[in-house]
Design goal:
- The chain is α+β, with helices and mostly antiparallel strands and about 110 residues long.
- It has one domain: OB fold (Dihydrolipoamide Acetyltransferase, E2P), CATH 2.40.50.
- Helices cover about 30% and strands about 35% of the residues.
- The longest helix is centred in the first third of the chain and has 18 residues.
- About 5% of the residues have low confidence.
């Protein structure tokens, strides 16, 4: 019984380690309500992103290709709505979230 319990604990830690990984991702700061519809970075896009986040209708997110990661610490991305950025942080594939450590404008 102890062996099974220990094996399950080791397996659960391994799964957690795979699902949350450090990453350098390049993507567009969007929000979850309208999603990729406002990835163009125009003033209209930026305005809509800010409006939806402020009203609570959407959460700031990072669009990387066809994947969307909800930003768990949105203050780190404030002011970059609609911009293409390079983010270093911890991404969790299973939860589709990212915690930003550093953020810089993409070149």
């Amino acid at each position: 019984m102890k062996r099974v319990l220990v094996a399950l604990m080791v397996l659960s830690f391994a799964v957690a380690a795979v699902s949350a990984f450090a990453a350098d991702l390049t993507g567009v700061v969007i929000e979850t309500k309208c999603g990729a519809a406002h990835k163009g970075g125009t003033e209209k896009d930026i305005s809509c992103i800010k409006k939806c986040v402020k009203s609570g209708d959407g959460k700031l997110a990072l669009l990387v290709g066809d994947k969307t990661y909800v930003i768990t610490n949105p203050d780190a991305a404030a002011g970059h709505e609609g911009h293409t950025v390079v983010v270093t942080g911890k991404a969790d594939e299973s939860a589709k979230t990212i915690t930003i450590d550093t953020l810089a404008m993409a070149k």
